[in-house]
Amino acid sequence: MGKYILHRLLLLIPVILGVSLLVFVFMDLAPGTMLDNLPNDLSEAEIARLYHEYGYDRSVFYRYGRYMLGFVRGDLGYSYIYQTGVLGLYLQRLPATLALAGAAVLLAIALSVPLAVLAARRHGSATDQGISALAVLGMSMPNFWLGILLMLLFAHTLHLLPSGGMQEPASLILPSVTLATGLMASLTRTERTALLEEQQKDYVLLARAKGLTGPQVTVRHVLRNTLVPLLTVVAMQLGAVVGGAVVTENVFSWPGVGRLLVDAIHERDAVTATGCLIMTAVMISLIQLAADILCALINPQLRGRIDRDRAIGLRREGGGAA
Amino acid sequence: MTEKQLWQRFKRRPSAVAGLCFLGLLLFVALTADLWLPREWVIGQNSEERLLGPSAAHFFGTDETGRDLFWRVVYGTRSSLLIGVLATLIGLLAGVPLGLLAGYFGGWAEQLIMRVTDVFSALPSMLTAMAVVAVLGASFVNLVLAVGIASVPLFVRVSRAAAMEKAQEGYVDAARTLGAGPGFILFRHILPGILPQILVHVTLRIGSAIIAAAGLSFLGLGIGAPDPEWGALLAAGRNFIRTDGHLCFFPGLAVTLTVLASCMVSDGLRDALDPHTYDT
Lengths: 322, 280
Fold this sequence. Notes:
Number of strands of chain A: 2
CATH architecture of chain B: Orthogonal Bundle
Strand order of the largest sheet of chain A: 1-2
Radius of gyration of chain A: 23 Å
Helix content of chain A: over 70%
CATH topology of chain B: MetI-like fold
CATH class of chain B: Mainly Alpha
Number of domains of chain B: 1
Strand content of chain A: under 5%
Shape of chain B: elongated
Order of helices and strands of chain B: HHHHHHHHHHHH
Number of helices of chain B: 12
Largest sheet of chain B: none
Oligomer: heterodimer
Distance between the termini of chain A: 32 Å
Helix content of chain B: over 70%
CATH superfamily of chain B: MetI-like
Largest sheet of chain A: 2 strands, antiparallel
CATH superfamily of the largest domain in chain A: MetI-like
Distance between the termini of chain B: 22 Å
């Protein structure tokens, strides 16, 4: 197990180097530099010194190397717009995004598993068809629209919940429901298919022959065997969740990383945008790694498999709206 | 399975056929709106009919300058649908050949292609698209590029997995034994075999590309006035959300129905391909 974790961690390094190189070089093409929006009282000589220090008289790869040396020391550059270091800015916004995404993922799992069980236990029934239809609808609704509709209903019309911001705990409800819907829909579909496949297996028949009731078999045996694929799909959908969080945060004025990123792009704050993009990729990779390790702990058969596409046969139902 | 059998099975699902018809109608509107839809209906302002609710005269109501929302949404089909289709096409044309190469040859080609794909997929596709727009600026072409580039990894992965499966089959071995070159095998034997499977993802991806493009416009990173696009219409309507909900409701409904149609077509195709799926 230790060897597996080490192997996966080592595989992470080239991915992080690659994605940071990609993002840095690409963002470097944007109009403007990381030294835009300098304070007005700097002298010409000081500005020239800064440009030299940041490597704007040399190649982009020098600037990337310089950036990554800072990166490993926890220095993501200085935003002259926010007047503070980018890493501090990112870490200040991160808890809000983690709370939103975490609540959404938990909510999606908590609701999709019972729905999938209900649908799979009565395969082909009206309940099953209704749940499947709802899942397709949930996958089709853009979360900015769903968010606005929920806001209209629960905040502006019924005055039950706050319409935005992060002042009280209840503020989390509407954004996390909005963000959870798409994931919940695609998880319900995946889990339903997994349950239907699992129900066909011989051990289910054996368990029934032993005298266990249908629900007992489902909960004790079938459900347990579908949890690893479910977790894998959750990990694969994490990128879609984070992408959705960017939009959702902007609908509900939720002060997370997504809003920071969008604001930075609007303000042409290249250094903040670059930092947010790279850190988001790193965070997602780490959480996915944690999920894979968890899967390997649950099911030792997965430990040899590094290739995620092959390991789960690329579940078609997993492809929700990104 | 021949195309005819596939179509026979596809036809059996009313929802799939309905979705296909709806997408066909939208495509027709998108391609021909310029010919029959008077521009005055789309951008014509009328200060006496500002912020009206839905009525027989204005099906979706009017906006803050008295423009008819129904015709703006209809005209918006042009931008939204074309972005979705063209972006998916970019992902398809760039991703499928790479996936085929990786899946069929294996070895260092596969390693190289898949490691680069890993790097690309480490960043969520929405964020990749945002970065592209941040660098290139907001316009129709850049929006297509942004969403298109963001969908390449999906098509690489899907076509690689499918090609790996097909490369094991007897008829591919037979072709190889008969002396067929790799290019011939890939494009004459494997590609046609995996095309239906890829089509399942194409239809699904058109839907999510439309959502992605509308989301970017909603964030102010897409195309703006005066030509309407669904995401931009919705973003503009947000300013009046407390008083005039219809300005947000109808553009969002248009996105939802379109994506719903693409999901239903995709599901129909998937079931027609694989009789073992457990879909209702």
